[in-house]
Design goal:
- The structure is a homotetramer.
- Chain A is built from 12 helices and 13 strands.
- By secondary structure, chain A is α/β, with parallel strands linked by helices.
- Chain A has a 7-stranded mixed sheet with strand order 8-9-7-10-13-12-11. Chain A has a 6-stranded parallel sheet with strand order 2-1-3-4-6-5, sandwiched between helices.
- The first copy, chain A, starts with a strand and ends in a 19-residue tail after the last helix.
- In chain A, about 60% of the residues are buried.
- The interface between A and B is large, with 49 and 49 residues.
Chain lengths: ~350, ~350, ~350, ~350
């Protein structure tokens, strides 16, 4: 098979850099075009200095013609609400698209408007877009022309909760998520109070308390799994590290069960999903085990609570927000779309935190 | 008034070093005796190098006679279950004692045995010991001969929840605590997997999931406030910073209320408590605002949840585990016991993370 | 004595925040006026959230009248080249001034123009300005009306080298400085590539290699000590921590000496200087011992080198760039200017990294 | 070609874990045997939890028979002086060996005894051992039966200096190295004062000042390059990050040259060496560009100095101590020994810090 010819639109941010690193290393990919508004005309390796000697490309201005002629697939790595306008023309031009932004994740244009504060530019495309979480939508991803690559928090939370809801172990109306993210999640644009070194070093702080725009994304996808309405209480925090998401989730059990039964259900649910690891009883995920990899590690515990003896389930999940939470997952989706093994270019380990 | 003559038993660990730094700086204190098993005979400033030029004392072996003759007050900074045996003789010798360990915090010797795995050496003293959280027990601390200085997590969680329970805003049977601690909480003794640099750097991990020994301490003190049984679900995590506790707590509201009403109750509850700051609506505590200080910052939010319209309260609290969570609180207790203003040597700021 | 009434011009950056923290805590100071262009009209504690509950002031627009009427002393904490224009009017109005910026440190307006790229606004004041390093210029500081508070790197390097040059132990033409700074040195204005979290975390990088504007400041002051020309090779680096300067300096010895002789000279040189600590032979400074304090710790070693048997001296110095490298030193200068003990409000410890 | 069958002796430390991660990911390798004294009988993935699901092996006791029957190559990852005794029998058994320890790096048993404090167990093998720095000894490595894998500091310093000495640009008797290392260099065994989280976080400190055991290794190999005696002044420091070496080196130029001439010589010297990148004039290496990769980045600057106009050269080098400084280099050596492309399993990027 000839190599997949890819273009990257929005290549000068953190996500663009991460993605280019993975694509240049992928054995079945040729990077043909890299767009950036701010960096057009500059060598890619000058902006992403870790790519010195590894990438001879220059950033270019957006060109639909160039993309149509030279590419099979376009990765879109623009900020929310900015990338949206590129998608219609790209899809119309027959290109397959993986959007790492948030604009095509929500199915309901009204919900989108509520959370992102703008009208959707292509509401008609929302139903075509496939929510690119392979562990839940593997077959749809294979056939997709437009993949909405999930957010980092939703990936961690949905993978943690889907089996519990699918298996009927929990009611969906009482879910408490306490999540922590590394600072790369705040992007490369300076945000005083958030992503300056002194904002984050030796600090922990919550933000967007119960109003984070990833919440409806979780509720939408988990609602599909649960076959009903799901309400998520979601509080994200910033932690002093570069990469990593850690989610600690309390949820009601709908009946008394043994932990091992739930764990077995989780293991079965993710059989065939090479990037989800269910940890043994008594062990819990840690960021150091997944940073630099495409893994999402999941652990489970029971918490006794309430006089009536009903137990709570505590679910933990950890992933690298730049990998399984963004770029690694995008590669995984690409592999599926082009008939490659899901792990190509990602497995066994793409940059694990060796030995730590 | 002549200065308070104090002795420190267990002076070579992190807590001992922190405490000595504060005591040497306190205008009304004279440090007369510092004990350490491992470091007896060595200069204090050789072990705690930040005290070079500031402390001419040497560590000594334990001597009840020395303490009795030279001290008014003894701070005990030994590991759990180790410090216990010193307390009986010290109290009997007429010395006032502030125990920074956990051995006299629980009132029930049976509960102590369950969580700490050993028989209590002086069960008869448990009822005399005052739980040294001045914001709840100020008057009792003033008169106390034996103060059990609270744990770091309990200080953060109890201060965060006490007003909600005292005001009847919440039922006490559904509390979910997700707490993060800096690594100083793990002490100075090497614990591979926990307090080595590579264990914690670029990592987040939970530990003692729902089985942490601070849980009964929270339940005991909050039970007193609530006037009934309180059940806490408590999951602590390690975060990659040296100091700081961050607690994010979900709890049921017992009735529909406005956030401002609850906040006003909180402000009123802590009027007269100089080290608790209730943040305005829409603002949340962060570790950087309290690290190096004796403050506990508290913030509040409402989270919509459940079909029936009952809301959840989310409470945030942040403190420095080495200050309000240990040594600063011990100084605060000492001030009360000796009739000094509560903030002497601690206020306005003892080492705030200026400007970050 | 009535309290010193101070004004702060430029109060919303990191330096302003640090300074306010120290001033509010100082027993002999009353803060009467705080200026900020960006934050005028906002409460100080809203910008510097760690000051919540401790400072009721608001930032104001600059007003010479207000300062003249209400203040004895003005601290100027503006960026280089920006603060300069305020100094003339303030001095003319009879106010004493401590400038934490760089504009009055160099004596030669031509050298200033070369390194800072602008004409000096008040070249006539340069000769009046006292270089505010108390350990070298204590008496001049006492009488000064205008103090140029030294830079962070120069403080570390000058204190490390002054005795070696003053004692004739070293030729002044071969000095190699390798210095590392925490990220607070880069200020609060976003500088992509420098002070974003991802720029600095898990990274080490040099900057302004042999062209840093602090170099002429070192050469000027050390030249005065040595009584001749001094040439400094200076390479600064960014290290992944918030605060701290670490300087490792190689220099030629002019003759064979025993290390102990040099150390004794250093100790004698700084006798009477409470904030300089000369470490014993075989011990070296570390940032953790000085962070949060006004200390500069200095250590010495000999390095064998060259066939001809002439030895090299290696000098190490560590300080907190926000304290002895900026705000602590400014307070120290204020104390001297107003006849207070040098350590008032700074000593024994103002926020030591207790026990670490 | 059938896959290389490898054994790892000393597999439970940081180096062992790193190495296993790379080997499991290498397309031409089969890991057949992993020894560990402490962990014999335990699953590899239980000790190195990041390898969960990726490695089904168990640690075993040492067995020369097992290694002889099942392996072509043995990696030795034991502590200095401990691994030595395994080498004789392994070599005698006809196995090829790559020793990641220090025991076979020095050619002179007497020098070894001086720096490591023990008699060498197999002095007769020292002359056979090839110093495994491929950029200098590529052909010898190809034919080697016993490779002494270089230390992390020596790799950074030798690669930085070899061209300057080989090209006669510098005299070899005046070299000043100021090097910083991440904490993984201190290994997995607790060393209070060094590798606990609180020892290193928010800290910088030197250690083994001018007495580090890597110094003779640099002098030996650079002496071979220079064709004469080289004397290195070497001061290592600990920096608060997990991985990375940063070396800043001052050295005399033997004559006045243009920077570009020296840079061109460097580029030519490393032509054909895929893992050394010489940066353009005015750009300098940073740890973030090399962490997780096998690259050593090198930058150059001139520093004016001395009245007589002779210039100094400043050389900067950065690498990942766990990759080019240890395990990546070992893989690079293995590739050469077994006729594979030098970059197999390492290139373009094995875990780069994407985009940071």
């Amino acid at each position: 098979m000839s190599r997949i010819r890819v273009g990257v639109v929005g290549g000068s941010g953190y996500v663009g850099g991460n993605l280019l690193g993975l694509l240049l290393w992928h054995p079945e990919v040729e990077v043909c075009f890299v767009e950036s508004v701010q960096a057009a005309g500059r060598p890619v390796a000058e902006v992403h200095t870790f790519l010195r000697g590894l990438c001879g490309l220059e950033f270019q201005d957006f060109s639909l013609d160039m993309l149509r002629e030279n590419c099979d697939l376009v990765f879109l790595a623009k900020a929310h609400t900015e990338g949206m306008r590129f998608v219609g023309p790209l899809v119309e031009a027959g290109l397959r698209v993986i959007d790492l932004g948030a604009d095509f994740r929500l199915k309901d244009a009204e919900v989108y408007r509520h959370w992102y504060g703008v009208e959707h530019a292509f509401p008609g495309l929302l139903s075509q877009a496939v929510y690119g979480l392979p562990e839940l939508n593997r077959e749809a991803v294979r056939r997709a022309r437009l993949v909405a690559n999930p957010g980092c928090y939703p990936t961690a939370v949905i993978l943690a909760l889907a089996p519990a809801l699918a298996g009927g172990y929990s009611r969906a109306d009482e879910v408490f998520v306490c999540a922590y993210s590394g600072i790369s999640g705040a992007g490369r644009t300076p945000q005083p109070g958030k992503n300056l070194f002194l904002d984050a070093y030796r600090n922990i702080k919550p933000y967007k308390v119960c109003i984070h725009q990833h919440q409806p994304e979780m509720e939408q996808e988990l609602g599909r799994v649960a076959g009903g309405t799901v309400r998520i209480n979601f509080v994200p925090h910033l932690a002093p590290l570069d990469k990593g998401i850690y989610a600690t989730i309390y949820l009601d059990l709908s009946r008394r069960v043994e932990l091992e039964e739930v764990m077995e259900y989780y293991r079965e649910y993710y059989r065939g999903s090479p990037f989800v690891r269910i940890l043994p009883s008594g062990e819990y995920p840690q960021v150091a085990d997944v940073v630099g990899t495409n893994f999402c590690d999941i652990g489970l515990a029971l918490a006794a609570c309430k006089g009536d003896g009903i137990l709570r389930l505590v679910v933990f999940s950890a992933l690298d927000n730049t990998m399984k939470g963004a770029c690694g997952q995008a590669i995984q989706n690409m592999n599926l779309m082009f008939g490659l093994p899901e792990t190509t270019g990602l497995y066994p380990l793409a940059g694990a935190s060796w030995g730590t």
